[in-house]
Specification:
heterodimer, A: 324 residues, alpha/beta, 2 domains, 5-stranded mixed β-sheet, 3-stranded antiparallel β-sheet, 12 helices, 31% helix, B: 146 residues, Rossmann fold, 16% strand, globular
Amino acid sequence: MQELVNRAKELLADGTVSRVLGWKAGDMSYNPEPAYFNSAEELENFVYDGFCGANLSKYMIEASKLEGKTLVFLKPCDTYSFNQLIKEHRVDREKAYIIGVGCKGKLSVENIKAQGIKGIESIEGAGMNDGCDTLTIKTLYGDKTCSYNDAMLERCHVCKGKEHQISDEVMLESRDTKDAERFAQVEAIEAMTPEEKFAFFQKELSKCIRCNACRNVCPACSCRKCVFDSTKYDTAQKANVTSFEEKMFHIIRAFHVAGRCTDCGECSRVCPQGIPLHLFNRKFIKDIDTFYGEFQAGEDTESRGPLTNFTFDDVEPSIVGERG
Amino acid sequence: MSIENETFRPKIVAFCCNWCSYAGADLAGSSRLVYPADVKIIRVPCSCRVNPMFILRAFEKGADGVIMCGCHPGDCHYSTGNYYARRRMTLLFSMLDFIGVENGRTRVEWVSAAEGVKFSTTMNEFVEKITSLGPNVRLEDLRCRN
């Protein structure tokens, strides 16, 4: 971590960049937050460890409008989002100095709490130089341990790989954490009967409080005016009133990012209610792969997305019923 | 007023493109072909004008089935609109299936301006299908029930 700070200070000092976009320590050891650093002194608060799951690509939309270059740290999966934003002309490549940082799988404190570990005071073993096998957790009730892989975010179990898709330089080692099939969860739901599917989504989506965190964090959701904002007042829309609204919000949100979603998993990470929102996006990705050929958004900055493209012999919509 | 004894009459929304299917419906009418009055036609400039949200909104407001009709692929008035619509609807229908909405409540049919007969048979079939599926309870907004 110190080498990242040193490199950032160098780049600030020689004037290559005007500011640094990274993560700063939060009030607990497990909740660092994205932050801008404008000087070497401010960089004292910089932190990079297993809890820095936040994808910084979306912040580059605003940073692209500022004077001078911004140094941004991107993990391998974040670089897909950045590429996708370049393709959509939302960020300016010239305004970004990208350091691709290594990633050993990102952690979620929710997964630790789910194992019955309460009263967490601090967590050790999440640093980039640690072995990534065990986390030592200091709690009000004594020391507890937890396996690193069990605390990982869902998206890290289906890791897209260690390669940075775009970067000016790469620092720190990465670890391939893939240990599950990407579409296994989607396939499990597809195998259910319509009644079971409906009950499953009713149960999950009825937890939605419409805080719009999934929308605000999503690098693909970068419209200035959203269909879900009120047309009368300058506010985000009210909470869901009916069981229908919560479904429609999530279906339409997933549809709007279909073909552009890089499967970065930020929506599921930030959901305060723990709704597995990535299932919607991954279902669209699976369908696009089956119907229109394999496509990974953000792999390049040139190609046309599957929903802005067509072929003369695409499948007919009736295929959905025929598959049974 | 008792509604228990009445048989179920579905509410069907049909999005028809201005250039082919709407003219097809017109031809069905002027040819004196019969199709159920449960079908409410909404004219759109092109099948690709149909936002997936329109379909969900129709269900929200109490539709039991939604059908989209457009020009045959290759015959779009705007050259390529229906190709895009085809991809969108495939993905949307697949998603509706994924969240447990019955298959068959949504349909896409390509109807040209000369196919009055096809329009009428399609609508008869679709209404029959929706009648057998019964009222839409999974996607409706209960406030819109009268």
